[in-house]
Description:
Elements: H1 4-16, E1 20-22, H2 23-34, E2 39-41, E3 47-49, H3 51-61, E4 65-68, E5 73-76, E6 87-88
Parallel strand pairs: 4-6
Antiparallel strand pairs: 1-5, 2-3, 4-5
Amino acid sequence: MTTEKDVAAWMLEQFNASNRIYQESIVYKIKRLFGNEFVFKNANGNYGISKGVLKHFRDLTEGKAIWERGSRSWRHLRDGEEYSGRQKD
């Protein structure tokens, strides 16, 4: 049985294979590959990644990944960039 940790580990693989992963595309891949229990539909009718999966993904990427709110994506820290928190505008 697939767990939230398994989905987060898969997200980490996708993240490490590229410079950036976009929430909009990764959420549909999670839904298709792992099932509806790892995603939810928000008030606007858009899919989001479950909080449990995001918590495990955050644990796996702490100090390595930045969430860019504008592009709704996670990216790797750039060379010389200091980690000053999880989110950038």
